[in-house]
Amino acid sequence: MSPVIDFHVHVGRSEMWKPWVFEWAANNLNEQDRILGPEQYLNSIAASKETLEKHLDECGVDYAVVLAESSPITTGITPNDYVRDFCRGSRRLIPFCNINPHLETRPGLELERLVTQDGFRGIKIYPTYQHFFPNDARMYPMYAVAQSLGIPLMVHTGSSVFRGAKLKFGDPLTLDDVAVDFPNLKIVMAHSGRGFWYDRAFFLSRLHENVYMEIAGLPPHKLLEYFPEFERNADKIIFGSDWPGMPYIKRNLEVIRGLVLKQNTLDKVLGANAARVLGLS
Ligand SMILES: [Zn+2]
User: Fold this and answer.
1) Burial of 207: CB neighbours in 10 Å, binned 0-12, 13-18, 19+
2) Total number of domains constituting the chain
3) Claim: this prediction has a pTM higher than 0.85
4) CATH number at residue 258
5) DSSP-assigned beta bridge partners for residue 190
6) From the CA of 105, how far away is ligand 1's center (Å)?
7) Ligand 1 centroid to residue 242 C-alpha, Å
8) Which residues pair with 151 in a beta bridge?
9) What is the pLDDT along the chain (281 residues), one digit of tens a residue?
10) Which helix (H) or strand (E) holds 154?
11) How far is the CA of 1 from the centre of ligand 1 (A)?
């Protein structure tokens, strides 16, 4: 039995996020949780390792990728140090750092430090929220480090509803340059080009051996509509939830398990592909 891995989990306390992120998150809560409010929902689960791990147990999730983010003008800041300390000592929480190229003079050296000293096991970048193109030359030293250390690069692609986000930076096509120039770098396209670039994300993950699609934040019942050839790409699609903004991991898993897909495809998408990318044995 392959593990179930959620490749896209945010943690933190409510004050780390912009108010408009909360308004959006509140809309995704069911009536009962909405009465509590997103602050309460977030702070009661996403603010400690113990409560998050208990929640993952309830959802049947074995491992979760936990994301740092430094997007001060659009969504908020979950510092690398916070995520490092949050995941410390946990077998199943896998920390991913973030480096904002506007805030870091030497992204390559900083990534090396974050991985070798702080124990980060991947990096997520947020072009849409931090306003740069993934194929910007400033990013290349960081990609070289990620490739040589063998850690995956996760990239926000596709739409966003948050104030200040610029959608042009979310075009997956700019990752074609990165995939060509760093053929051994594992690239995970978060949200699979959500909205108007599903075809590009799908095509790139078929074309490049180390490029993957991740499906966080997509309505799970629509997956076969967005990707009619989903099954053909079974080795390259990775489950993620975007919890707690998208608050119901268990329900998403149930919907995906109910799609017309082979069991083998489900095993790969819900965990085996992610395990390979993360180097979990
Ligand atoms: Zn997210």
Assistant:
1) exposed
2) 1
3) yes
4) 3.20.20.140
5) 156
6) 25
7) 5
8) none
9) 789 999 999 998 888 988 888 888 888 888 888 888 888 888 888 788 999 999 999 999 999 999 999 999 999 999 999 999 999 999 999 999 999 999 999 999 999 999 999 999 999 999 999 999 999 999 999 999 999 999 999 999 999 999 999 999 999 999 999 999 999 999 999 999 999 999 999 999 999 999 999 999 999 999 999 999 999 999 999 999 999 988 899 999 999 999 999 999 999 999 999 999 999 97
10) strand 153-156
11) 27
Question: Please, is 3 exposed, middle or buried when counting C-beta atoms within 10 Å of its C-beta (0-12, 13-18, 19+)?
Answer: middle
Q: Distance from the CA of 150 to the center of ligand 1, in angstroms?
A: 23
Cα-to-centroid distance, 190 and ligand 1 (Å): 8
CA of 136 to the centre of ligand 1 (A): 22
Q: How far is CA 167 from CA 68, 75, 127, 153, in A?
A: 21, 14, 9, 20
Cβ neighbours of residue 229 closer than 8 Å, sequence gap 6 or more: 202
How many whole angstroms separate alpha carbon 143 and alpha carbon 226?
Answer: 30
Ligand 1 centre to CA of 245 (Å) is 8
Question: Nearest-CA neighbor of 172 among 130, 200, 136?
Answer: 200
At residue 186, the 3 state secondary structure works out as coil
**120: domain range?**
5-278
